[in-house]
Amino acid sequence: MTLSTSATDRSALPTAFIGLAATLFCAVFGGVYEIFSHGVWSGFMVYAFLFPLVLEAIPFCWLALRGKALPHPWALNLHHAGTATLTVGSIFEGVLAIYGTTNSLTLVYWIAGAALLAGGLVALLLTRKSA
Amino acid sequence: MKQSRFLILYGLVLVLFTLYVALDTFVITRVYTVSDATPQAATSAVLPTTAPAIVTATSYSDANITITLTEYREHDTTIYVADVTLTSPELLKTALAEDSFGRNISQKTSEMAEANGAILAINGDYYGSRERGYVVRNGALYRSSASSDTEALAIMADGSFRVVQEGVVAAEALVEDGAMHVFSFGPALLVDGEIAVTTRDEVGKAMEDNPRTAIGVYEPGHYVLLVADGRTRQSDGLTLYDLAEFMQGLGVTTAYNLDGGGSSSMVFMGEIINNPTTNGRKITERSVSDIVYIGY
Hints:
The complex is a heterodimer of chains A (about 130) and B (about 300).
Chain A: H1 13-35, H2 43-46, H3 50-65, H4 73-99, H5 107-130
Helix pairs in contact in A: 1-3, 3-4, 4-5
Chain B: H1 2-26, E1 30-31, E2 54-56, E3 59-61, E4 65-74, E5 77-86, E6 92-96, E7 102-103, E8 107-108, H2 109-115, E9 120-123, E10 135-137, E11 140-143, E12 151-156, E13 161-165, H3 171-176, E14 179-184, E15 188-191, E16 194-195, E17 212-219, E18 222-228, H4 240-250, E19 254-258, E20 266-268, E21 271-272, E22 287-288, E23 290-294
Antiparallel strand pairs in B: 1-7, 2-3, 3-4, 4-5, 5-18, 6-23, 8-22, 9-20, 9-23, 10-11, 12-13, 12-14, 15-16, 15-19, 17-18, 17-19, 20-21
């Protein structure tokens, strides 16, 4: 287990870039989808980009700028899986809302996403303690 | 490597789950539990007269039913208005696609109109695209779960219209009070002759002109069934406020917005009257869950 605090550690940079790319993709996808939705508006679609922005791009940019190393891979994996679940869930919820339909199964995205993020946080704390 | 394998595997699970939810929403047919409520006779007690009906391209008239179709042009939109007078409210009927209540069960308005011998038909509330919202048809309660922030329209046995807030008035109570049909879409456009929407009220936050379907009542036995074109070069469509204003101009007392957009369709004597379109490029009927129709 390595938890480097070297000021030159930029290992978080690639993850930050992926987060930024995901943010950009979601923003463009949501914008284009809204253009062709005959004015039917869904906050889930429009604001889906916030998940990769707030959960990936900003924190990993911060890690890279502060020169901090990436957390334990399992904490990272759970965190990434949670972000992906919430992002996909938000976009899919937007698609359903714009079509004018609902499906209670979409609740799974929010529960699973939150659970994975919480799991990531717990893994981060546990691995920090053991480091 | 193990970690990236986890992400790949999880990504696959996420894609498969999303695919399943999409199929469940749009494709997989599911019949819901039907209520124990005994449906009133789908066929009316009012029988067709022996004298032949007088039918023209824009009208129908017999001893029990008078329908006059009028085309209006407002807000750069063609609006089709059917003025309907009935000797009995029983002649205002509804039908479900494939005569079944469930999800992803749909038929075109024209197909359901033909199957039920409808003289005039419009699309209903497309109840099948949602999991909640009152559904009562021909006196039978099919779904009693309330859809939050939704106004329901009840067509009572005496032919009057009643607008209620779902969750405030239970579907069971409406049936006990004599509701024959309850629709869950909305919002109400006119209540007691007053416009009940604002310029900011829109279905699904659609702050634009769109094709619309609506139903209104002047008095029990005298109704208006309306469909407006939209999304085409010829017709922009109407906002809900435009629609409410138009209905008010007709003198309607209570009016209610039904499913619009690509669902909006009106069929008269087997012919599609309006220009139904989902994307504005192709004029074609969309399959829907249910219709409102006039017939025996």
